[in-house]
Hints:
The protein has 224 residues and is α+β, with helices and mostly antiparallel strands. It has three domains: 1-37; 43-153, Sandwich (Immunoglobulin-like), CATH 2.60.40.10; 154-224, no CATH class. The protein has three helices and eleven strands; from the N terminus they run H-E-E-E-E-E-E-E-E-E-E-E-H-H. Strand 9 (129-133) and strand 10 form a beta hairpin. It is elongated. It starts with a helix and ends with a helix. Mean pLDDT is 78; it is low at 7-24. The structure holds 2-acetamido-2-deoxy-beta-D-glucopyranose. 2-acetamido-2-deoxy-beta-D-glucopyranose (NAG) binds next to strand 5. It holds the Pfam family TRAP_beta. Keywords: Membrane, Signal, Transmembrane, Transmembrane helix. Residues 1-24 form the signal peptide. It comes from Raphidocelis subcapitata. The chain crosses the membrane at residues 181-204.
Amino acid sequence: MAQWKAILLFGLVLSAACLRPAAAEEAEDADDEDYAEAERAHLIVRKWFKEERAVQGRNLTVHLELYNAGSTTANSVELVDADIPEGFELVEGSGRASFAKVAVGSSAAHSYVVKVAAAEGFATFEPAKVTYKADADGEEQTTVSTPAYVEAITAVQELQHYALIGGKYASLGMMRTSRDWFTAFAVLAVLGAALGGNSAYKGVSTARTNQRRKKALAELEKDA
Ligand SMILES: *[C@@H]1O[C@H](CO)[C@@H](O)[C@H](O)[C@H]1NC(C)=O
């Protein structure tokens, strides 16, 4: 009979455990409903670059898009972008913009152009700040955009990139004649010499160092 009691107790504990989260969920649902009932604008701001790559000496277009995912129009929208990182220079437009309104389900966009000057390697364009009136009371709301990341490369690195893509197509059988192959190899060899010219030298000096090591080892072994 003790067994039955244990099972009964177990059942009670189990149902209590099941009821508790259900009650909590109900409370959460109520909160969600309250929130959904309040008509407000909700801007989602994304920041990215129009160009695929940032090449030194060329332009890079910073693009910002403000999408209203809320349930009412966003009014008096002010966009202020963060300072551009070191190594980039502003050449056209600015990081500031205003929009009288952004309707529900639509977006506003702003872009400006910077030049990739002395930038090298990875750079972060910090998030832009956006303020707007989110509801009928004119309550001000502030949000930030996503940051945008870019890798600044040199024109030579860009050439190398295309050379590598070329190599990929070559291996896919795009090179039909031996002349095509010869041309491709000649181009890659010239690029290789320009880009990795000292790797051959490094190879030679490594070999020399290895020989010196071997000699030194041999000497040691003699002494031992
Ligand atoms: C970069 O943008 C500026 C301003 O729009 C333009 O005058 C210049 O020609 C552009 N430079 C290049 C390399 O596209």
